[in-house]
Write a structure and sequence with these properties.
This protein is α+β, with helices and mostly antiparallel strands. The chain has helices spanning 3-45, 98-108, 140-149, 192-207, 209-215, and strands spanning 49-57, 62-70, 81-84, 120-122, 131-134, 157-161, 168-176, 182-185, 217-218, 235-239. Helix 1 runs antiparallel to helix 2 (98-108) and helix 3 packs antiparallel against helix 4 (192-207).
Length: 243
């Protein structure tokens, strides 16, 4: 190859890589937008719904929507069935949206790396091919703040790093110290399970441009990462909504 053709190949290869990255981000954002639309429809017709349940076929990546379930009354209580998509007889308002909801769920989970997969778990109360998707909260930022303040009541903001599990909290800001600086801690008091839930919700905020613009502020090149990582625009400050 001549220098000119080598430069052209390198330039086009970089452009192709940039476009592939952009496409991936758009696909993730679209999957979450569809998930939110589906959740809004389910909650409008069935306000107590907390999950949808479905069968998933890995080889074809197809699925069958089975219904909607509510939240458990306690840790040992089963999830109550609120709507059976397979046997409702047209008596439930969601019956008229069953096919559309199934398509929405399919699109939300279509990308292998869709952030919606973080909300999916096996339905332990059912035998065979049965899965649960937890509906996203109506306001992710408020829900994140509620979870964090159960363990850090004075928290006013968190620093999140998209490079770590899609959006792991790396610092918690708990007001102002005596010297006028932010009072920060890296000691998260919540459980691993709660940490995973928060990380999944933060990852969804990163993935949805409208939410990212609303809730995330780049930490900037002057930010000193508590674990020594290099500066990145993927490290952001997330102010928590007022309690």
């Amino acid at each position: 190859m001549t220098p000119d053709t080598t430069d052209q190949v390198a330039r086009l290869a970089q452009q192709r890589e940039d476009l592939a990255t952009q496409r991936r981000r758009i696909e993730q954002a679209y999957a979450l937008a569809v998930l939110d639309h589906m959740a809004a429809t389910v909650r409008q017709m069935c306000p107590e719904a907390a999950y949808v349940t479905f069968a998933y076929y890995g080889k074809t990546r197809a699925l069958d929507l089975h219904g909607a379930l509510g939240a458990a009354a306690s840790q040992i209580s089963p999830l109550p069935w609120l709507w059976d998509a397979c046997d409702s007889g047209g008596e439930h308002p969601l019956d008229h949206y069953s096919d559309k909801l199934e398509v929405d769920l399919q699109q939300a989970l279509e990308p292998y790396d869709s952030p919606a997969w973080a909300t999916v778990s096996r339905n332990a109360a059912a035998e065979g091919n049965s899965w649960l998707l937890e509906l996203p909260p109506a306001d992710r930022a408020v829900h994140i703040a509620d979870l964090i303040r159960q363990y850090h009541p004075e928290a006013t903001a968190v620093v999140v790093d998209r490079r770590n599990a899609g959006g792991r909290v790396i610092e918690i800001i708990e007001g102002i110290a005596e010297d006028g600086t932010d009072q920060r801690t890296t000691r998260r008091r919540w459980s691993r399970e709660c940490d995973d839930t928060i990380a999944a919700l933060v990852a969804q905020i990163f993935a949805l441009p409208t939410l990212a613009d609303k809730h995330l502020v780049p930490a900037g090149s002057a930010y000193r990462h508590p674990y020594g990582s290099s500066p990145s625009d993927l490290v952001c400050l997330m102010p928590l909504p007022s309690a």
